[in-house]
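Lecture notes, continued. The same structure-token format from the folding unit now serves as the input rather than the output. Read the line below as a description of shape only.
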């Protein structure tokens, strides 16, 4: 048996849970912020993409990224609960995979808007989400 350190969980499993919690918090908060602060977020994105070919479809893009973020966060959170209760990781893997794709969408948008600093800020989030994906996929 591997080195169980807390409640029968290994250090690897606990690390996956910590990564998953970070992903869940990040995406639930970000997605819900877009829902509850729609006008402010829409104004930001409209201005941010005003000089790009994405300008005419900002509302559609906001809907897509909001759905991806909320799905990522909640699937990861429910996946964590299912892992703790039943040892299954499928939902956590799915949630973290969606999180990876969400960051890629955001990164592409920042690059298109020529906001290279904003794109660079997303790299740690991408490492977090891919780390969570890798950890859950390895359980």
């Amino acid at each position: 048996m591997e080195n169980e350190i807390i409640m029968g969980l290994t250090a690897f499993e606990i690390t996956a849970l910590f990564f998953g919690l970070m992903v869940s918090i990040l995406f639930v908060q970000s997605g819900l912020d877009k829902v509850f602060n729609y006008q402010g977020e829409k104004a930001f994105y409209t201005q941010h993409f005003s000089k790009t070919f994405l300008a005419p479809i900002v509302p559609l893009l906001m809907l897509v990224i909001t759905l991806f973020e909320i799905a990522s966060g909640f699937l990861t959170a429910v996946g964590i609960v299912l892992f703790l209760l039943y040892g299954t990781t499928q939902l956590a893997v799915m949630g973290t995979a969606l999180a990876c794709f969400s960051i890629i969408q955001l990164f592409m948008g920042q690059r298109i808007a020529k906001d290279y600093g904003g794109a660079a800020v997303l790299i740690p989030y991408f490492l977090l989400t891919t780390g969570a994906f890798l950890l859950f996929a390895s359980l």
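Point for the exam: The first helix runs from residue 11 to 36.
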